[in-house]
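Run: sequence + S-adenosylmethionine -> complex structure.
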Amino acid sequence: MNLFHHKSRIIVTCSNRLSPYLQHEIAALGFTPVRVFKTGVELMGDLKDCITLNLHLRCASQVLFSIKECNAHDANALYQQLLNISWESIIPADGYFSITSNVSNETITNNLFANVKVKDAIADRFREKTGARPDSGPGLHTAVVHLYWKDDIAEIFIDTSGETLSKHGYRKIPGKAPMLESLAAATLLATRWDRQSPFVNPMCGSGTIAIEAAMLATHRKPGLYRNNYAFMHLCGYDSEVYDLEYKKMEADVIEVPGLQIIASDISEDAIHVSKVNAGIAGVEDLIQFELCDFASTTIPANEAGVIYFNPEYGDRLGEELALQETYARMGDFLKQQCKGYTGYIFTGNLELAKKIGLKPKKRIEFYTSKIDCRLFEYELYAGSREKK
Ligand SMILES: C[S@@+](CC[C@H](N)C(=O)[O-])C[C@H]1O[C@@H](n2cnc3c(N)ncnc32)[C@H](O)[C@@H]1O
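>> structure
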């Protein structure tokens, strides 16, 4: 079986609540999503399509390519089913592979046990057919096999991504409480920023939101910053397909004359980290960095600008009390200094959010890890502040 000439079900996974944005991205690439669920999007395609998806998507985590769906009540049944897959035509004999899984089957109490069963079946099939077997282990930098097993139905995928796509490769220094890149990208898509008007990001931390904004405006895709994917380690992989897709991606980058992206932070360290990360992303010249309290951030006069805050949430009580004032000040600043803009505040502390004192036009739901978060949208025309 040459996977590269074979059409099958593709599942693109993402963090919870990102799938509506992922769906749009996939459709914009010319694919037809056939199912959208909380943590992913399903479509049909071949491994060449997986290459395109891996390089272009901003909101994705993994691109999974289905190779078999079967009935399996327990681990032995699964093992027998897996022996029938011609692994020797998928994974190079001198290669390396690893197993990941998502299992909810009553006979399995430990996912690692299921992973070992998959690994054993692949190794035993190889030994029987070729007398040798590829190495295996936990690394996700080469071929990766993914098992999705729910009740008595198991589906085996080739994970064509390997290392997660949710990190976009430019953030070599994380800074304090950085936002996951795929989440930052999805929240930007949620703002419907026109990608030409000013974009202001006070409290920029490690710069993720401003960098993602610059990438979005100039059509820079995450694939520009990464050169290894699991699909590169499969039998039949033709680097020309990837090279061509990479060149197309480079050629897609545009200049946006007059684009103003402003990122500020009160911490000298944060501004330094942001500049380093923006440099790696190749967008340092597109962002104006300012070291200041958020209330001193430059706000260019504009009718369609976007201002986006991601403040701290406050894990401890003392911090939360101090942040009450910060949240109230953000509200005042938005109302008084950002007239005409659309304001956004992303937070995982819904109690603190009440201190902002502005009536949100929208409350868009997200998660950061397991924290229930909101992206609050404020229309900043005169008189929008709620009467206290
Ligand atoms: C949650 S972090 C932002 C993380 C960022 N989105 C990222 O991905 O790295 C909040 C940032 O707000 C900054 N900050 C806190 N109080 C501030 C203030 N009064 N003025 C400006 N920046 C402030 C902190 O230095 C920190 O970098």
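>> summary
Residues 140 and 162 are 5 Å apart (CA to CA). The first strand starts at residue 8 and ends at 13.
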